Model the fold of this input.
Amino acid sequence: MPRLPGKGIIPSKAEQKLINDAIYGRAFKGLTRKQSDEVRKEIVRGIRDKEGIQEVIKRITASGNVPVAQANLIVRTEDHEIRAILREAAFKINDPKGENLYKWAGPSYQPGRSTKVCQEIKRLTRNGVTMQRLKEIVREQAHKYNPKWEVRDWTPHGNCRHQPIRYFGD
Ligand SMILES: [Zn+2]
Done:
């Protein structure tokens, strides 16, 4: 599970705003508006209370209104995106001009288990790129490999466990 930036790096009000901006205003595929609202509420609560993904999924599926598989995908996707947005914000505090270099990091590629898209993003960013360029590459590759995926800034596919990290050279 990718960790959140250290406590206190992002002022909590700013952090809450980033979370809200990331998650509100969208309906989830296949869910009614009411279901979407409920799901959002539980995800935000989970992040706030530092719960594990499973606890959030359990609450969402308790009523029987949202199928487990769908809850799984939604919660993992939103959780991943929000954590990456918070990482980006934390990096920006130390890099206001966007001059530092970053790369894409996460589990190694395993045939049959992983998608190729993150492998490709890793390859393209292995020598470090700016945060803005990294974001562009994630978007470009997500579009190329998963044209039907609702592309986010930091989540190029479902169940993604990759995140931006600082690149300091080899
Ligand atoms: Zn991934």
In short: The longest helix spans residues 68-94.
